[in-house]
Sequence to fold (176 residues):
Amino acid sequence: MDRAVEEFGHIDVLVSNAAYQMSRSGGIAAITTDQLDRVFKTNVYAMFWLCKAAIPHMPPGSTIITSSSVQAFQPAPHLLDYAASKGAIVNFTKALDQNLVEKGIRANSVAPGPVWTSLIPATMPEEMVESFGQQSPMGRAAQPAELAPIYVFLASQESSYITSEVLGVTGGSPIT
Fold:
């Protein structure tokens, strides 16, 4: 934050997109405290600290975009801790927006469905990787480039009247 403020004088857009997941069969009993801490520290704490550091440097018209997930709305049993962290991001974003709207700063979240990233083969059993994304109505996982336009839109002035929203990019899976 300090470097961005030093170079540009302020922060117009903050995108919080870090995530960690680890697929675990066996439900809650299979999730260690260390894993839960890692998931929440990466997915929730980091977002909180980024927002806290950026907001003092954000003028009216700025925007914060968090990355939640379809998992916040349709949690998979093997991603219990990850889904809970993404639900926390949705609620945090909506509450944060209510704190910032009077300052003219918007906060929204993008909720992707399955997206083919390096996180998938690194965190899922091989048999799940082979069919990853087929559960979406479109029958496939998204490519990261298919999510980029929604982030650009939310960062732009074309979305200046959109705030406190969660926009799904899910291949047809509902986020309700």
Remarks:
- Residues 2-169 form a domain with the Rossmann fold fold (CATH 3.40.50.720).
- The mean pLDDT is 94.
- Residues 66 and 109 are 5 Å apart (CA to CA).
- The helical segments are 2-8, 33-54, 80-100, 119-123, 126-130, 144-155.
